[in-house]
Amino acid sequence: MKDDVLKTKMGKRLMALFQQIPEHSREVIDLCCDHGALGRAILETRPHCSVIFNDVRANIIDQLSQKLLSLNASNYQLSIEPAQNLKIQQAESTVVLAGVGAEQCIEILTELFQQPLAQSCHFIISPATKNFYVRQFLCQQGVYLLNEQTVTEKNRTYEIITVQLNAVQNSKKMQQTDDYLFGQCWQKNNAEHIAHLNKILTYYQAAKVINESTKKIITGYKKIKKNIEHPL
């Protein structure tokens, strides 16, 4: 789907999230949706698919409701509540969680993963910060990795991690190994990836207290950076 045919304009990151949503999805849950661009694009392009727009801020949902009028769509719901309180209503839904920090991301997923219908859902996760901790949480939960990628937009690089709670074809169970804790989405000699890894290392190396967990994170990202800077 080309962005120029949509009323809803999406940047590179939103387009990458959009492209991860399976064609067969009958419901997309856009958590912490902000202005709802991702969900609006779904309504434009997939009339068979319903969308739940969720945000804790009532003013954001009010503004979104006005934008939705221009799409002449009816297959959506508006949810004003903390994302972790939202109830999954359909099996095999796609849940998108992007743009929030690691702590909030983990808090939300902890609650959602406990719901019975979550077992068949497709989770697309793109934390704003501290991806290691989200990956560590996913490994602890024993979820199955479907896809991982990075996208760079406006000099920021984001990871997009797609998982399910149960095994499906071509999925891999996430385990507490470097491949899953730090990701395999880094490209050799990619200047954007190297710059992003440098930012991560600068952040953790500047910590006032460098404990064992922080040392592990620094060591892991240094290893990735070395591997993509000097590929064998």
TrEMBL record:
Tell me which UniProt keywords the record has, alphabetically.
Answer: Methyltransferase, Transferase
Checking InterPro entries in the record gives: SAM-dependent_MTases_sf
Q: Which GO terms describe its molecular function?
A: methyltransferase activity
Q: Which GO terms describe its biological process?
A: methylation
Q: Which PANTHER family match?
A: TRNA (ADENINE(22)-N(1))-METHYLTRANSFERASE (PTHR38451:SF1)
Name of the protein described by the UniProt record: SAM-dependent methyltransferase
